[in-house]
Design brief:
The protein is an alpha/beta fold. About 35% of the residues lie in helices and about 20% in strands. Strands 7-13-12-8-14 form a 5-stranded mixed beta barrel, surrounded by 4 helices. Strands 1-6 form a two-stranded parallel sheet. It has a two-stranded antiparallel sheet with strand order 9-10. The termini are far apart. InterPro entries: Nucleoside_phosphorylase_d (IPR000845), Nucleoside_phosphorylase_sf (IPR035994).
Length: about 350
Amino acid sequence: MNSFDDQHSHIRALLHALDGMAAGPARTMVLEQFLHEICVSNPFASTLIASVLKAIYPNDVTLIAEALATRVPQQGSHATIMTEKQVDVDILLLTVKENEFLACLSAFGVAVGVPSVTLAHDCEVWRAEHSGVSYAIAIIGDDGNVESAIAMGKLWSFVQFKAAIMVGMAAGVRGKTKLGDVVFGSTILAYEFQRMTETGPKYQPKVYSPAGRLLQRLPTLTQVSPDWSKNTTYDLLEAVGFEGIADSEEEQLDPEWRTKIHTGAILAGGKLIEDGSLPQMRDDLHARVLAAEMEGAGFAAVCDNERVPWVVVRGVADYGEPQRRKSWQFPATFIACRLVRDAIPLGRLPVIDTSHL
């Protein structure tokens, strides 16, 4: 490959081919090539990525282990990674697409044009600070659980952090959430794992859960900061990058609008849901499902593997229905990011120790 961009595109192409192939010699060849590209593109992160691949493709555990053993230098991966750290912050914030990334920068007051900290392997972060807490903001650039795991692997090589938060937008369950509400994932369900039986497929989701203590105090945010929702709404209306809500949207912003904070299950899988099936998926999978997205399980798997505190936070931008529109994407993400920013120093989201602040 002539550049990392070309190599990353090739890796994504192999991944998509792999997902669509049945077990057999051809699939084995594609998986071997995929693993080779991963190890070549970032040997520091390949151990983390392989741990996620083993969970996603349990039938290929032996092949993945052999590829890792033969293609990655045999040395302590953690010792190697620690020597490469270039950025030291309290919290890593991971976004997915550009509109979520821009909303996050705006919510944290990072001005347009502020340069990034460029890391190796074409990886970069933007620094932010609020109320004595330091952040590194990063963007994946593509959707998918494996893509988020790969991004975390790269970032882990060069960023030292105490906790990680994935923040962005999601489809919310109509009737259980409204546009602009924020869902904190008490459970992340990699829901596409199934057992095929004579009577039809049976869901067997993989489950990831952050430490319960991290979400216990969230409901008290409005008690310690009664005007938080009102102030955030005013800030959003003046935010750089906010272009308003389309007249065609059924829910509008006005000075009386207020967001609601939820904790519940979030679905994370390869489907972009826009057929109205989310309420039925809730009935089939978990009674506490409130939202669905495509990256949280890969992110959570890597964080669990490295035993770092983590949370997935999603603003509700649509309901996963055919008439899905996009004008709530920026505000939903902005509100979710502001909630993260303000809840941490107030002790409502204790992903790090803030007693010194």
